[in-house]
Write a structure and sequence with these properties.
Elements (H helix, E strand, L loop, with lengths): L7 E6 L10 H13 L5 E9 L11 E7 L4 H6 L2 H14 L14 E10 L8 E7 L9 E11 L6 E6 L6 H5 L10 E7 L4
């Protein structure tokens, strides 16, 4: 993929404190993931949960990868009336601030449009290491590197990030002990919902 393409939207968030007891992850699998994968312009949508301890470098409990058909899909997806209504419903049911308006929605989640720097753009397993950085991370086998092209909602906490898929969940300790520069932290992501599961 050419440098500068914008075919990934990264969503980061922490839902309401009681979400797990109310069946949030079942809802992701049964409702959220099938909906987003049916939206025209979205090629592949996956939901992830952070399995590692809280880290100030990535202070969220969940994140989603929204792979778009192409750069032209951004406007089509973000103007989709069904998607906007669905996002409002998510806010009311699961958001930490259920009364948030369009002007304050970043209190519930942030969305970043990303450009791929290196690696492919496919999901390769059920566990990964997410590595935020303030600069570009070197390319390597089994590593996807992205640059935040623009914030669509919320403030940018990092300028780049890398994703490295794990052969087994236990490999997280090994990878996290040898983070590439300039990554300054990491999170262990484990998949919750995917059209491939």
């Amino acid at each position: 993929m050419a440098n500068g393409s914008r075919d990934l939207a990264l969503l980061v968030y922490t839902p309401r404190e009681d979400s797990n007891t109310r069946g949030y992850e079942d809802w992701l699998r049964e409702i959220d993931n099938p909906f987003f994968n049916s939206v025209p312009g979205i090629r592949h949508y996956t939901n992830w949960r952070v399995a590692s301890a809280a880290d100030c470098a990535f202070p969220y409990s969940h994140f989603d990868f929204m792979y778009l058909d192409d750069a032209d899909s951004v406007a089509k997806v973000w103007s989709n009336e069904d998607l906007l209504a669905f996002a409002q419903g998510w806010t009311e049911k699961w958001g930490r601030y259920p009364d948030a308006t369009q002007d304050t929605m970043q209190m519930n989640y942030q969305v970043y449009l990303c450009s791929q720097v290196s690696g492919d753009n496919h999901v390769h397993g059920n566990d990964l290491v997410f590595m935020p950085a303030k600069g570009e991370i070197d390319a390597a086998d089994n590593r996807q590197v992205y640059r935040i092209a623009e914030p669509m909602l919320g403030d940018v906490r990092f300028t780049h990030f890398a994703v490295e898929y794990l052969g087994a969940p236990s490999d997280f300790e090994t990878v996290s002990a040898a983070l590439p520069n300039p990554s300054y932290g990491c999170a262990h992501g484990t998949i919750v919902a995917s059209p491939d599961l």
